[in-house]
Amino acid sequence: MDGSSESNSRGLNTSEFLPAERIIADRSKSSFSHIGYVRSLLGSSHKEEDSFRVNYDDDSGGVRALKREDVSLRQWLDNPERSVVDAFECFHVFRQIVEIVNAAHSQAVVVHNVRPSCFVMSSFNRVSFIESASCSDSGSDEERPKEAATRRRRKSGEIGGSSKEEFQPFPMKEILAREMRWYTSPEEDTGSPGSYASDVYRLGVLLFERLLQLFCPVSSREEKSRTMSSLRHRVLPPQILLNWPKEASFCLWLLHPEPSYRPSMSELLKSEFINEPRESLEEREAAIELRERIEEQELLLEFLFLIQQRKQETADKLRDTVSLLSSDIDQVLKRQLSLKQKGNDVLSFLISRKRIRQGAEGVPADENEDNTLESSTLLESSRLVRNFKKLESVYFATRYRQIKADKPLARYYSALSSSDGKSSLTQQPSKKDQNDSRQGGWIDPFLEGLCKYLTFSKLRVKADLKQGDLLNSANLVCAIGFDRDGELFATAGVNKKIKIFECESIINDGRDIHYPVVELASRSKLSGICWNSYIKSQIASSNFEGVVQVWDVARGQLVTEMKEHEKRVWSIDISTADPTLLASGSDDGSVKLWSINQGVSIGTIKTKANVCCVQFPSDSGRSLAFGSADHRVYYYDLRNPKLPLCTMIGHTKTVSNVRFVDSSTLVSSSTDNTLKLWDLSMSVSGVNEAPVHSFMGHTNLKNFVGLSVSDGYLATGSETNEIYVYHKAFPMPVLSYKFENIDPVSGLQVEDASQFISSVCWRGQSSTLVAANSTGNIKILEMV
To answer: Which residues fall in a compositionally biased region of kind Basic and acidic residues (predicted)?
Structure first.
């Protein structure tokens, strides 16, 4: 077939179709070639849009988009996995194709492409006609073997299983070439143009393929190729002629070599062969339609059941949550009642004294008390409402952690109660005491955190430390530290000086300029300082050249100098439990332990990344924590320095500071904008990937902004030139304070986005802290 037919045979005009006619839209209206779709159906890796062609849907009376589950009629015929072939199904498909061709002929259109590759079937055997394919645009012979194999694998997967060796589907180009030969009528072979009779001949070939599939299945594609080629000479397999003479006779009528002897479409539709199974086919269509509707209902049911399941899960969780809250409310009410009963006499005594004192001062006792209570309640309510969601999440996290921890204890008590022997039973707590203890165990820590969170309302500046060298550009303060009694604090930074100030003097004296009581000069920029908790006048420092120095503040002299690090030392710490032990962390990837008395290192921990911070716990000199540029926090037992006791994983950038909150809890800061609180007892196989809290609110992406801990409060700087204070119990800030940028010459406030808080330090366990920023501006602040 040369494809050179009249214009009315190139496509079908759907604008004239009745809704019931199953005809494809005009070929000229489609922007995609048929070959692209055929390739996608046969497993080729063409663009997705080629598999979503617009075609006529015989149900709806309109056009529809082809679905992914649609298959070409060629695939359906050549499917090697079809062990059972339904005769009614085959005749139903054939009848639909006959009706499509008849609709075209009724508009005086020759279809030409009445071939399996030009039809697709839905999962319910609904047939749609697609545009013609030609062998010329089917791809080159030099297809890569890998792509061909991939298509075969994909096709095999679409069909529903692994392919069989004895029958492989034809390659895509070969399919089209063979179909063109098989489905070309005798008159077209001689050069005559295609006609209505040619379409009838093609219907005969299509019917024969169905009969071959039904009654004489072939075992290989070579055998099928020989059988289909013999059809040109009107040679049918003997099995079909002997066993199915009626079907064979009808097929030969359509395949008559003379076009004038072939039936017209009207004769074809009136024939007994087409109409005999009509009732059965209509019943089958009705059954298929019913099955479609049932499956649609099942889909809806599945969707509704899924919603019901999820909502039920939500309802169950909500019911459990309400039950937990009710239990906790009962527990708190019991405690409150118990406390009221115990303190009734003391409370009465205090109230009577307060009334007497207020009466003497001329202030009505009840009015003053009510005003104070109302003001406090409004303040606390405002802060509670503002952070209600976060407080709620912390409450539930605390409760669920406790419930999880209580399960092993409950099993332990259960085992005790089931054991024999009165002596053991008399020693264990009663069941009521066990339940009360377990249920109420969360109250004290949560209440303590909540009270501390609500205790203070703001940070107030107590004093500005005004120095005489504010015009010096090298004023970045890298470290601040208080001595053991909180009387003196030291600052150190890029100006190569350690300055010692008396805290009370700065707070109480309203001087224009404050001078340090002692000033120690170093040869290099300073990165860290640490006071000795035992020797009041001893302070250690680290610098950018990798040198660790110990100073005597009272005499203003350098006591010892240790030079074993190869690169900059970022951090140092002197053990509180063993004041002769000092640790340092460096860019050379090592942590060194020093004996201050000997002036030499007594141990080294090697790591694969820069060490940015080190810290001893307050109650032990045998363990150490440090943060690294590999985003991790390591906790070591110094008696076994080869492997960490615990590795804390959770930060996404460099860990710049670590501080112990207590002996089993530490907090780390990182340039990933977070602080993280770690419980050392929660490590599993030496690894902890679940921080208790992640504190967020401040900004820290590239600079070291300091970190300090006091009585559960965590102070850190921010690259927005602000100080943030958190409490260990809650992940949101308690307080914040922004440094004003005052020009030292004009005294006016100016904006400078480059300024950031560089160091913070609490004054012991008090509510006072000292903070410095990148310009050397130092403030003493207090929580009030």
So the answer is: 141-150
**Can you tell me the distance from the alpha carbon of 657 to that of 627, in angstroms, rounded to the nearest whole number?**
6
- Residue-level pLDDT at 438: 53
Closest CA to 637 of 647, 625, 651, 622: 622
Q: Is the whole model's pTM more than 0.85, yes or no? A: no
Dist CA 643 CA 634 (whole Å): 10
Residues paired with 749 in a beta bridge: 742
Terminal-residue alpha carbon distance, the chain: 96
Check residue 240 and give its pLDDT. 81
* Count of residues making up the chain: 784
* DSSP output for 181-222: HHT--HHHHTTPPP-HHHHHHHHHHHHHHHHHHHHS--SSHH
Structure tokens at 406: 């209580």
| Single-letter amino acid code for the residue at 275 | N
Model pLDDT, residue 83: 53
Structure tokens of 123? 């999962």
Closest C-alpha among 460, 479, 455 to residue 713:
455
Q: Is residue 41 predicted with pLDDT exceeding 70?
A: no
Name which of 493, 573, 585 is nearest 540 in CA terms.
573
Q: Which two tokens stand for residue 432?
A: 């009521």
CA-wise closest residue to 66 among 108, 28, 98, 25? 25
Confidence at residue 678, expressed as pLDDT on a 0 to 100 scale: 96
Distance between CA 116 and CA 38 in Å, rounded?
11
Q: What is the mean pLDDT of residues 362-390?
A: 56
Residues 698-747: tens digit of each pLDDT: 999 999 999 999 999 999 999 999 999 999 999 999 999 999 877 767 77
Q: What is the DSSP letter of 171?
A: P
Q: How many helices (H) and strands (E) does the chain have?
A: 20, 34
Burial of 525-540, coded b for 16+ CB within 10 Å and e otherwise, reads: bbbbbbbbbebebbbb
Q: How far apart are CA 155 and CA 38, in angstroms?
A: 12
Confidence of residue 214 (pLDDT cuts 50, 70, 90): low
Strand (E) or helix (H) holding 571: strand 569-574
What are the distances in angstroms from CA 310 to CA 302, 315, 393, 472?
12, 9, 21, 65
pLDDT, tens digit (0-9, with 9 covering 90-100), for 315-369:
999 999 899 899 889 888 888 888 887 777 665 665 665 554 454 444 444 444 4
Cβ contacts of residue 63 below 8 Å, gap of 6+?
A: 14, 25, 54, 55, 56, 57
Helix (H) / strand (E) containing 78: helix 73-78
Q: d(Cα 134, Cα 113) in Å, to the nearest integer?
A: 10
**DSSP structure string for 328-342:** HHHHHHHHHHHHHHH
Measure the CA–CA gap between 644 and 606, rounded to whole angstroms.
Answer: 11
Rounded to an integer, what distance in angstroms lies between the CA atom of residue 138 and that of residue 174? Answer: 9
DSSP label at 58? T
Q: What's the mean pLDDT in 105-123?
A: 84
Q: What is the C-alpha to C-alpha distance for residues 531 and 550, in angstroms, rounded to an integer? A: 10
In this prediction, residues 562-570 reach a mean pLDDT of 95
Q: What is the pLDDT of residues 632-654, one digit of tens each?
A: 999 999 999 999 999 999 999 99
H/E/C letters for each residue in 392-409? HHHHHHHHHHHHHHHHHH
Token pair listed for 67 = 């679905």
730-738 and 722-727 beta bridge pairing: antiparallel
Beta strand segments in 271-341, E: none
pLDDT in tens, 419-441: 444 444 344 455 555 555 555 67
- Helix H or strand E encompassing 36: helix 34-41
- What b/e string do you get for 4-33 counting C-beta neighbours within 10 Å, with b at 16 or more? ebeeebbbbebeebeeebbbbbeeeebebb
Residues 6+ apart with CB under 8 A from 95: 274, 278, 281
pLDDT class of 493 with cuts at 50, 70, 90:
very high
